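User: Okay, second chain of the day. Same drill as before: sequence in, structure tokens out.
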Amino acid sequence: MSSALHSILSEAQFVDASLQPVRVDFVGKSVVVLFDAPGFCDDEFSCCSVAPHLARGDKMVLWDSAAAAPVFVCVECFESGIAVAAKSGDVDFKRIPQFDKVSESEKVVAGLRRATEKYRNNSPFAVIMVSFAEDEALFNLHAAHVSWPTLDFNDHATALALADLCGAFVGETEAYVWDASGSLINKHGNATFKADMSYPFLPLEVTELSESNMSNNYRIDEKPALVVFCESTDSTEQARIHTLLNKVAHATLTSHNSNPPLLFFTSTHLNESSHNLRNWAQLPSETHPDFLIIDSTRNNEIYLSEGRSLTEESLTLFVRDFLVGALKSDKALVPRGLVEHIDAEKLWIKTVTVTTVKTSKGSTTTTRTKYKRV
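Assistant: Same drill. Structure tokens below.
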């Protein structure tokens, strides 16, 4: 393996579960790089109540025609009545659950354990972990909790280089899969391992929007995306919808090789992204399933289902008509005074990070643009 990843790993220092130095053989193997933490804090957000402050936990979101952007208040301010808009009684608030980082970590780690056990004899891949532990005592507990090597607590240069190369964010569990040649083949391995997919651990063809804004290694603002909203349905109906969408996605993606013309998402749980998309498109509230295509590559055009039934045949025709340019888009569906057009950065925060890595061969400086779900 000769790549940027191999160059970084060649000087990395790892420890095993007993905290002893260990060498890791990456030759001829795929590599799963897991970023994880021994504990997580809820993300902070600005509560726009009478007394603005930073808050954590679930949030109440308002979006009406008089607002230039969503208005967020914490549950405590909303229930106590000090959120100005809440006092009027004629404003529709939605409660947005906080993303459960602890549960996500546990599920991804459990999925990776099952994968390593499945391929324990002559494994074609290696797993390494970068811990976000803030002190050495927590790091020791974290490293002892897993069966794969962990990057040494003091190897900061490698940790920064790997985070920059993968596009990882501190404090978020994420698994990245690199093939034996050193190419990044899965930028959102969490879903792959939670679903117990087989080696070589390629991305799922359908992504749950509440878990990630990335599908088939592209963000939703980088490719046109079909989103099926089914938050109000029961688990049986959601499974049916997921199955039929998988069929449509598979047929579409296999005919376009490695360059997907369309991304595929479900939205089974109310979240900020799905709530915003519904408001931008003026879809009905979460009372029945619906779907749309949003195309950020064409000035954020929206293509609505317009009463089409949610069946495999209907979705197949919807996708086909979009790909041949037969669907009518309508940007005017976005309420005037709200936003002129859909801005991808309303859904994801963009940061530009400049990183300098010092090695025995000299220093290298890289600049990367990263996106984080909000």
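The CA atoms of residues 176 and 282 lie 36 Å apart.

User: Thanks, on to the next one.
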